Amino acid sequence: MTFIEEMKERAKKNIKTIVLPEATDKRILEATNTILKEKFAKIVLVGNKEEIEKIAKENNIDITGARIEEPAKSEHYDEYVNMLYEIRKNKGMTIEEAKKLVLDSVYYGMLMVKSEKADGLVSGAIHSTADTLRPALQILKTAEGTKLVSAFFVMVVPDCKYGEEGTFIFGDCGLNEEPGAIALSEIAISSSKSFRQLVQKEPKVAMLSYSTYGSAKSSATEKVIKATNMVKEKMPELVIDGELQVDAAIIPEIAEFKASGSPIKGQANTLIFPDLSSGNIAYKLVQRLAKAEAYGPLCQGISKPVNDLSRGCSSTDIIGVVAITAVQAQKV
Fold first, then answer.
1. Is residue 149 within 8 Å of 300, Cβ to Cβ?
2. What is the mean pLDDT of residues 207-234?
3. Which CATH number fits domain 150-293: 3.40.50.300, 3.40.50.150, 3.40.50.10750, 3.30.360.10?
């Protein structure tokens, strides 16, 4: 069973409702058709009902079973306007601004999640990351005990003996460009929780660098060491080590030579990169050269599940992210 097949099976055990606010996109409608057929989530499409149904009909896509929410005609419009105004009035939002924003499909979808009329949201096929995450942070806020929203990828490498039978989490590969030590520690903590939730195995976290145990010294390596120590203080039960080069993190034989005594013993399954450049380069190299499945960027640190799609995504990508989002929603 593939990783996504496993996500779908887990999602079926406790069906959640996922909002797709980009319902005039053909890929979203194709994904909706498959999701409803496979019955692993309920779907809410946000937008003009007539336009959505026209696009579906023109492309011979059956979306029967999906709920369509049209913000301007919604019975919840006034409720959501008041909710958004109350949330943002201290930031200067007026009731008139709230009335306009609730007509935006992403804002409307976030308010559905906030009011528990839906369990999660997936956007990004049309919208930028900023246009997806801004309303998420304004309305849903960060999760309790979390100071930072970050992004991660689930990487599934075929025929691989490393990680958790070839499965890894890479963080942060999509959001925080130059995290300092505190931010890096937050990324590590959130990524360990994401690994435990999605893979259902014990996370073994490697804080990556170009140096292992002081083989080089610079402000960059010191940042990783400092972040590692912060995580150890906050989560002493977590198996974590750093700073480590990636070979010492994932290959036991090299770990024994380069990092003797490391608690992860070259068996890391959660890899934390020191900056966005290295994380993004690494996931794309593994995806292309090792022919790995790459699921993400997935968000962590928001109080409810919200995930961002690539604007180049396929309907298959959307299906996978909806399945993951549905599983994430099961903990809420």
1. yes
2. 95
3. 3.40.50.10750
